[in-house]
Every structure is written in structure tokens, then in C-alpha cells.
Amino acid sequence: LLVPKKQLDHRAFRRLKTIEQHTSLGSGYDISMKDLEIRGAGNLFGYKQSGHIGAVGFEMYCSLLKDEINTALNNNKSLRHPDVVLNVDALIPDHYIKNPSQRLGFYDRLSKGVSIKDLENVLVELRDRFGHPPRETENLISLARVRLLFKNTSIIRIEVGRDNAVFEFDDVAPFKSLDVLILQVSDWATINKLQYSFGKTTAQNLLFTFYYKNFESGLSAVCGFAKLF
Q: What is the percent of the chain where pLDDT is above 90?
């Protein structure tokens, strides 16, 4: 190969380095994968051999593609999770897990957990590898737990504060009517000796708020509220 003396552009340099690093027999596959990474994967349903998958990441691209195919086939059965906001710190601190890639790995596992058992496994591993998790990490696991408890329900948003929790409904399902929903929710709050109130959003969605003494007892009540669904 003859390389000009002028400075090479970034992609040309990466191609030459790929050839330099993969010289053994059977390296063709590794070279093709590296080439795919450099120029970007092409269109799945077209003639172009280069594309922009690298701009969004291969995993995200596959996820978006899967959603679009399911929508086109009217087979979109993806899980629906509410937006959950905890008005406390919910994170994995640097001093608890110093390695950034390990922290990101645990964030990813918590966000992709599909059952309470998955979250319990993460908690067990954290304790085994790094010791008892700090309060912020326990809050993060609680946030993931609430998302799972209320998945595929009529609740689209939950905000848990220090002395109250607010739930936003966008549908009366699985209740027969709005009156039935209000009655059952009111009965639940009364049985648990919690003060409560109802309201509406600007989009006319129902809001249900109940009040408690401290964040820990409130979080327990939020998890108990999920049994209605």
C-alpha cells in the first residue's frame, strides 16, 4: 500500500490501522465488522451500503426498528411504564461504585428489569460486591420498583414527595367507570388512614393525591396502592 505524505482524514487512518492490526489468517470477519463500524451500517430495505446507525448507536437503532415493525404489523405489545419522580436523590454515587462503566451497567440493569426479582438480584449483587448501598441508591431501586408495580396500568405519572404522592390517570381501566375508580381509591385511602384529595390536569386527566408523615412510610403506601391494579 502506498500512503500519500499528506495528512490522512480520520476515516482513512482508521481503515489503514484496521488492516495493520488484523494480519493473521481468518481476520476477514474482524476487518468487515470494523469496516461496518467505520462507515455505518446501510439501509435494511434499500440499496445503500452505508448509513447512520453509528449516530444513534446500534442497540438504540434495533430498538427503534423493532418498535416501528411492531407498529406496522399492529403487534405493538411493548410494556407501558409510568413516569416516576422521587423528590429525593436517586442515583449511584461515585464513592460507592468508582468505575463509570460499572455504574452505567447497573443503571442499565435497573432500567431494563422486567420483574421485582430482577431488582432484588441487582440489590443482592450490589451488597455482595460493594457493601451496603447508600440511601441514594436505595431510592433509585425504589424508583425502579414503583415503575414495575404500576406497569401497564391507567396511571401515567407518579410523583412521590416527602409528605404526599400524586398519581395521574389517563384512563379508568381496569375500573368500569370514573365513579367506580374514585370510590375504590377513596376506600383504599380510608382503610389505610390516609388523607387524600382529587383534582384534574390541564388535559383533564384525573389526579389523586394522598398524604403521609414521612418519605419512607409514603413509599410503602405507594407500593401498597399498586395492589388495586
A: 45
Burial of 69 (0-12, 13-18, 19+ CB in 10 A): exposed
How much is the CA Rg of the chain, to the nearest whole Å?
25
Nearest to 139 by CA among 222, 51, 35, 34: 222
User: Which residues are CB-neighbours of 35 under 8 A, at least 6 positions away?
Assistant: 15, 18
Task: Report d(CA 78, CA 152) in Å as an integer.
Answer: 9
Give CA separation, 148 vs 108, 118, 145, 152, 173, in Å.
Answer: 15, 10, 5, 9, 18
Residues 6+ apart with CB under 8 A from 155: 82, 167, 168, 169, 229
Among the residue ranges 16-20, 193-197, 218-222, the one predicted with the least confidence is 16-20
Q: Tell me the pLDDT tens digit for each residue of 99-109.
A: 888 888 899 88
What are the distances in angstroms from CA 137 to CA 36, 89, 100, 113, 157? 38, 8, 15, 16, 21
Strand partners of residue 206 = 169, 200
